[in-house]
Design brief:
By secondary structure, the protein is mainly beta. It has a domain of 188 residues: YVTN repeat-like/Quinoprotein amine dehydrogenase (Methylamine Dehydrogenase, Chain H, 7 Propeller), CATH 2.130.10.10. 2% of the residues lie in helices and 52% in strands. It is built from 1 helix and 29 strands. The strands form 7 sheets. A 5-stranded mixed beta sheet has the order 1-22-21-20-19, with no helix packed on it. Strands 2-29-28-27 form a 4-stranded antiparallel beta sheet, with no helix packed on it. The longest helix has 5 residues. The two termini are 24 Å apart.
């Protein structure tokens, strides 16, 4: 079903002011951010820059506050981040584990107790920019896709790599907590596939027919997938994948990012060229709010609360979304 949203009316929506802003200009321009997608580390935040990665932690005391607790040097521009399910700041000693993609086409797996012990393993294999990387839920594997037309699965015990050639550059890769036997991979020409994680054979695919910039698998409803292509937001039901269940033109410019909220009832989309962040109700893509940014990178939802976090130039911004 096609829905034509009036772009002018969208831009007239009330500007949503951030709930919280943290100025990080002393560290440079933010290149990417990542919030933990795991319950025990749900308040952990990573913020990437041109030569470092900051580790932050949310504190809730009447209002939300981000405290920077550690800094990791990085030899190049950080282009992607993923937090391991092993991360736990409640344990003694602390356990921080994450991976970071760099502009040198390498992945670095970093582990630290934030005191005495630290570890960094460099994973070589990609020959062009890495567009997405994700841990599986058991912390056994890391999946990555990039502009070199490859999907790579890294064994986190041996660091051996299984590579699969893709027909086109990979845009997104994702495991799902409710369906660990499948791995989602989306490519730039608009084809979204679900692979069997053991055989790495495709078991389901659907095609948006347009150049695709983002794709996300709903964390709460494993039959729902969203894609963003040439400014058009589409929702797919994997039980009937021939056509999207609903589509809407939400941006006038191509490119951008999108993610379901943790509960799956909302979906947010960010277009850096327009400098616009929009949040919709999932079912009918009804616009909840839109807001403007200067130089946004990517965004993340908090694991538990309806909070959207965005890296905007050198500022870390948080918006609270009304879910009603």
């Amino acid at each position: 079903m096609e829905i034509s949203l009036d772009i002018v009316d969208n831009l007239k929506k009330t500007y949503a002011k951030p709930l919280y802003i943290k100025d990080l200009s002393e560290h440079g321009q933010i290149t990417c951010i990542e919030l933990s997608q795991f319950e025990r580390s749900q308040d952990v935040v990573l913020i990437g820059f041109g030569n470092k990665i900051l580790l932050g932690y949310f504190k809730f005391s009447g209002n939300v506050h981000l405290e920077i607790i550690s800094e990791f040097p990085f030899p190049c521009r950080c282009t992607g981040l993923s937090i391991s399910p092993e991360t736990n700041l409640s344990a003694v000693p602390n356990s921080v584990s994450f991976c970071a993609a760099g502009s040198d086409f390498k992945i670095r797996v970093i582990k630290s107790d934030l005191e005495n012990e630290s570890f960094c393993k460099i994973l070589n294999g990609h020959t062009s920019y890495i567009n997405d990387l994700k841990y599986d839920l058991d912390d056994k594997y890391l999946a990555s896709v990039g502009d070199d037309n490859s999907l790579r699965i890294w064994d986190l015990e041996t660091y051996e790599c299984t590579a699969l050639h893709l027909n086109f550059a990979g845009v997104a890769v994702q495991w799902h907590k409710d369906d660990p036997s499948k791995l989602l991979v989306a490519d730039k020409v608009g084809v979204i596939r679900l692979y069997n994680t053991e055989t790495l054979k495709p078991i389901l695919s659907f095609d948006s027919g347009k150049l695709l910039s983002a794709c996300h698998w709903s964390p709460s409803r494993n039959q729902d997938i969203a894609s963003l292509q040439l400014g058009e937001l589409s929702l797919w039901d994997i039980t009937t994948p021939s056509t999207p269940t609903i589509s809407s033109l939400v941006f006038t410019e191509a490119g951008g990012h999108l993610k379901f909220s943790p509960q799956g009832d909302l979906i947010a989309a960010l277009n850096p060229l327009e400098g616009t962040l929009k949040v919709f109700k999932t079912r009918m893509l009804e616009l909840k709010f839109s807001t403007f940014l200067n130089l946004p990178t990517n965004f993340c939802w908090h694991y538990k609360y309806p909070l959207i976090c965005v890296g905007d130039d050198s500022k870390f911004c948080i918006w609270k979304v009304n879910t009603l």
